[in-house]
Amino acid sequence: MRKSRAAVWVAVMLLCSIVLGGCGTGGQAAKIELGEVTRSVFYAPQYVALEKGFFKDNGLDVELKTTSGGDKTMTALLSGSIDIALVGAETSIYVYQQGSDDPVLNFAGLTQTDGTFLVSRQDVQNFNWDSLKQSVFLGQRKGGMPQMAGEFTLKKHGIDPHQDLNLIQNVDFANIAAAFISGTGDYVQLFEPQASIIEKEGKGHVIASFGTESGKLPYTVYMSKKSYIDGHKEQVQSFTNAISKAQQWVNEHSPEETAKVIAPYFKDTDQAILARAIKRYKEQGTYAQTPEIDEKAWNNLLDVMDAAGELKERVPVSKLVEPSFARQAAGSGN
């Protein structure tokens, strides 16, 4: 009888593991639809989390899609076609300014500086910001963080971007690097790896960093609707834990090692270029060390938006940042 009962118990457990993927602590991975505003080496820790299985280790099945632009990303989030968005924190402020019964909350930071660089067509020695005056400057989209951080930096150096420059802002984000290569502009504001690619091809020269100049910002963050966060606290915590672990991994490994891991997401980019871009970002502290969003950095974001004329009122960090997930992740050693 004992042998019979034992055999039945083993059979039940085996069936359980097959049908449910494991009873008790196992179970099916929770599905999360994640939208990123663009595909960029700027988001290296995110691709590390995906490629190294950190999301899976935390019981998540994360499907990544590129939603191409802040407005499209926010539309996807508000409509429910994605659960979590990786996009500039300013977009949550725009939604708040329009009024919403279900506000978008920022719960984890990925990058903490602007990710663009000033690229000159000529090899400028002893660069001075005044040399930009009266030049043709190929900028970014109005109201987006790259353009606002760029304008913030220019104004800090006594340059009115709309009076002292011949500013071009009608080129689509995806085509800015190509426009510069084809001959448009004396200077251009570019993310990596485009800046390094242009340098390698001898088509331009990186002469300054807007990330260094504009200071710490909650530049690119993970956000979701309050209703989603309230209904999926365990998943949001698991997601943040995975990002925190990836941030630590990038911090502890060389640019070359990181480039190798994220290479599948940049199949048309040489790994040496990826490593060069990652090195540049690490040296200026672009990748956040933890997912926590700092109040001082948030206030700097408000200053940047205010200077650009895009802020209706100063929104305190407590209104749009949910800090508990990042605090727990940062303190857990994940």
From TrEMBL:
Task: Provide the primary localization.
Answer: periplasm
Name of this chain's protein? ABC transporter substrate-binding protein
Cite the PANTHER family for this sequence: ALIPHATIC SULFONATES-BINDING PROTEIN-RELATED (PTHR30024), TAURINE-BINDING PERIPLASMIC PROTEIN (PTHR30024:SF47)
Q: What's one Pfam family the UniProt record gives for this protein? A: NMT1_2
Compartment(s):
Periplasm
According to the UniProt entry, the coiled-coil residues are none
Example of a GO cellular component annotation carried by this entry = periplasmic space
Indicate the family of this protein: Belongs to the bacterial solute-binding protein SsuA/TauA family.
Q: Which SUPFAM superfamilies does the UniProt entry name for this protein? A: Periplasmic binding protein-like II
Q: Which UniProt keywords apply?
A: Signal
Position of the signal peptide: 1-21
PROSITE patterns listed in its UniProt record: PROKAR_LIPOPROTEIN (PS51257)
